[in-house]
């Protein structure tokens, strides 16, 4: 059992209303145990409507990423109709709670609204101008308020080492990536600018293609300053492989963000509804195994990534009620730190122990 004695004492202490109980590390938020930001993706409306969720968000995390509200399809759903309300609210929430705000995502095939995709396909000159204008508009508006951006999200194909075939790539060629970074850097020279993708920890060919791209960008003086590993990873992905992948990425010398962490049990083929339901129930043994793997994630991050390059660990939601995994893959699963009732799972205590043991 991870730290069970301490927890029982804490619960007893609180239950008896003892005011002189010494606070243990168990009562501290994750963020207090870490010297880099610990973040969560946030759906602000849902957070504000549930006081338990709100309290946990503020207590545990020092960084937030809007799960959807800063995507292009939300900010610019129709031509010339910038919609800032939801984004402004997230910016205000981060400031009020002294949290870092991470921007996600400026250019993403799946975040591009249909009207933009249609125009890009019809007119590459328009695509070029729009790319610069959109990035400039959004990044300048939040200059100094958004600490870093996923400038290009998921530039690689789902599997293997090729660039993803998107409307952007088709219209502008591979240079759309460099252009996006230049536009973001011009709009906010102090923002940390990331290239972000999934399965980098588990697909060596994809990682190689991705890191070749990073290398080319660096050689061409493109202002990229970070690499994002989404880390929607799985219990069956060996930690030795994750370590090696992180080490290869860290060797580029850029910041490394574990940007969308969750840890799932069932397999899937990366497509919508593509889940395979092998685990029907969440057993105590599974809870312990997940705790151990979450604990080791901190150790891997510290081993592979030098201190100055640790941009932080961000969870893609922190509870099994709200996780995107279940509706997206159409499976039951238990990928996060808190259960559906928003109570901490063994995973939470495991991750916390990882922070306690590795921070120095
Ligand atoms: O969790 C997000 C979900 O609510 C949205 O419906 C979906 C489409 O916009 O995006 C999910 O977040 C994705 C993130 O933006 C990029 N990496 C993969 C995430 C999970 O699909």
Give structural notes.
This protein is an alpha/beta fold and 360 residues long. It has one domain (5-357): TIM Barrel. It has 14 helices and eleven strands. It has helices spanning 4-15, 44-48, 51-60, 72-75, 85-96, 114-122, 124-141, 167-172, 175-187, 204-219, 239-250, 284-304, 325-329, 346-358, and strands spanning 38-42, 63-66, 100-108, 148-153, 192-197, 226-229, 232-234, 255-264, 267-268, 275-276, 310-315. It has an eight-stranded parallel beta barrel with strand order 1-2-3-4-5-6-8-11, surrounded by five helices. A two-stranded antiparallel sheet has the order 9-10. Helix 6 packs across helix 7, helix 7 (124-141) runs parallel beside helix 9 and helix 12 runs parallel beside helix 14 (346-358). The longest helix is centred in the C-terminal third of the chain and has 21 residues, at 284-304. The chain is globular and about 55 Å long. Mean pLDDT is 94; it is low at 11-15. The chain binds ligand 9MR. Ligand 9MR is lined by residues 67-68, 71, 110, 153, 230, 260, 324, 328.
Comma- or semicolon-separated keywords:
single chain; 360 residues; alpha/beta; TIM Barrel; eight-stranded parallel beta barrel; two-stranded antiparallel ribbon; 14 helices; binds ligand 9MR
């Amino acid at each position: 059992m991870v730290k069970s004695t301490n927890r029982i004492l804490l619960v007893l202490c609180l239950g008896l209303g003892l005011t002189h109980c010494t606070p243990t590390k168990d009562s501290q938020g994750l963020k207090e145990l870490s010297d880099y930001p610990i973040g969560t993706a946030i759906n602000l409306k849902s957070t504000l409507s549930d006081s338990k969720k709100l309290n946990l968000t503020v207590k545990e995390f020092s960084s937030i990423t809007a799960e959807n509200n800063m995507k292009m399809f939300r900010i610019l759903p129709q031509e010339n109709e910038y919609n800032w309300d939801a984004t402004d609210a997230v910016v205000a929430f981060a400031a009020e709670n002294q949290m870092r705000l991470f921007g996600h995502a400026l250019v993403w095939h799946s975040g591009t609204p249909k009207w933009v995709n249609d125009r890009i396909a019809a007119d590459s000159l328009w695509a070029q101008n729009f790319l610069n204008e959109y990035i400039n508009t959004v990044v300048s508006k939040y200059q100094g308020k958004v600490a870093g951006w996923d400038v290009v999200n998921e530039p690689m194909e789902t599997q293997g080492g090729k660039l993803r075939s998107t409307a952007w790539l088709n219209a502008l060629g591979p240079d759309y990536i460099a252009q996006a970074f230049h536009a973001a850097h011009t709009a906010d020279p102090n923002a940390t600018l990331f290239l972000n993708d999934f399965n980098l920890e588990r697909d060596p060919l994809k990682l190689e293609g991705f890191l070749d791209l990073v290398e080319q960008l660096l050689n061409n003086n493109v202002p990229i300053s970070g690499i994002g590993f989404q880390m929607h990873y799985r219990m069956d992905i060996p930690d030795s492989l994750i370590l090696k992948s992180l080490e290869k990425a860290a060797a580029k010398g850029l910041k490394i963000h574990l940007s969308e962490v969750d840890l799932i049990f069932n397999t899937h083929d990366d497509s919508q509804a593509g889940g395979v339901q092998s685990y029907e129930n969440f057993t105590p043994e599974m809870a312990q195994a997940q705790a151990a793997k979450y604990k080791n994630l901190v150790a891997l991050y510290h081993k592979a990534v030098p201190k100055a390059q640790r941009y932080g660990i961000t969870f893609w939601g922190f509870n099994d009620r709200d996780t995107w995994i279940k509706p997206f893959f159409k499976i039951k699963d238990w990928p996060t730190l808190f259960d559906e009732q928003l109570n901490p799972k063994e995973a939470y205590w495991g991750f916390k122990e990882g922070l306690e043991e590795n921070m120095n």
